[in-house]
Amino acid sequence: MPELLLIGNATQTMLERMATQFTIHRWSDLSLDWLAQNGARITHVATNGHDGIEPTVMAALPNLKLIACYGVGYDAIDTAEAVRRGILVTHTPDVLNEEVATTAVMLMLACYRNLLGNDAYARSGDWAAKGSAPLTRSAEEQVVGILGMGRIGQSIAAKLAPWSPRILYHSRSQKDVPYEYFSNLTEMATASDVLICITPGGAGTRHLVNTEVLQALGPRGCLVNVSRGSVVDEAALIAALQSGALGSAGLDVFEREPHVPQALCDLPNTVLLPHVGSATVETRAAMGALTVDNLLAHLKDGSVLTPVPECAGLLG
Ligand code: 8YV
Q: CATH number of the domain at 97-272, please?
């Protein structure tokens, strides 16, 4: 049987389907020494958006043909090196759009309506002891700025459009969408009440959201990040929240996952999630199915269903 290296997590269904066609080696049980001896037999890798594949691991797999990513974001995979070596990379676009968009909306609402603070108020007995909880801010009629207007950005916009008088977006180029384009992120942040980040991670977007952008968003502004931690300068974010230069932040992603800075935990105006934007049984099943469909299609006839755009030149 062909041999597959599994990096990180996979659902039971994924494991069962992969095991019908591949001998599976789990990277968590192995070492670079093992790869030096056995790496040449491995033709396929299944990994995820968080773990990706370390350059040393990729280099130790001379006959690798396909890296299947169980996730839409693939910034943890060196696609330039993969393309140079003729290795295909696939990911799981579209099937998680609505779930991640819902997570973004949930974070926004939780920030505005102080979901966590009010939950604690109800549970702790403060309500009985101190009376009504403090008022929150309304999430109605807010100007929403979206950083990244790809598939998930469009799902977020569609979910918020009925609530919002203006949806703005910033991306590298203008898209064919019915929202207001800003070529300058700081200008968009100035015009926005809430800034939602859903642009891909990687070197090109690192720290796009910096002190200047956060200050432009302002003391009543809300930052939501459901993309990658690297997109936001976390130290600048903490400083802005601590000083009151920024109103609140709802974060699903962090710069050094799974590390969540204590300063963010200590702030009352943050809502923090452990990178669960797509983490429901239903959506992970769909992502897992697509990941394995790519692996099995490739095994059957060399085709793949959802290659990353960088691989276009490798496909016939
Ligand atoms: C996880 C994600 O990182 O799809 C993505 O890009 O951020 C997540 O769903 C992971 O890939 C799931 O295994």
A: 3.40.50.720
Q: Which two tokens stand for residue 240?
A: 């802005």
Atom of ligand 1 nearest to the CA of 100: 9
Q: Which of 95, 90, 109 is nearest to 306 (CA)?
A: 90
Task: Tell which atom from ligand 1 comes closest to the C-alpha of 49.
Answer: 11
**Shortest-distance atom of ligand 1 to CA 8:** 13
Q: What is the ipTM of this complex?
A: 0.93
pTM: 0.97
Give the C-alpha separation, 41 to 37, whole Å.
Answer: 9
Work out the number of other CB atoms within 10 angstroms of the CB of residue 34: 13
> pLDDT per residue over 220-264, tens digit each?
999 999 999 999 999 999 999 999 999 999 999 999 999 999 999
Residues designated catalytic: 228, 257, 275
> What is the CATH number that goes with domain 3-95+281-314?
3.40.50.720
Q: Enumerate residues lining ligand 1, CB below 6 A.
A: 48-50, 70-73, 96, 277-278
Instruction: Locate the domains of the chain by residue range.
Output: 3-95+281-314, 97-272
Q: How far is the CA of 126 from the centre of ligand 1 (A)?
A: 38
Q: Which of 257, 278, 282 to mutate to test the pocket of ligand 1 (most atoms within 8 A of CB)?
A: 278
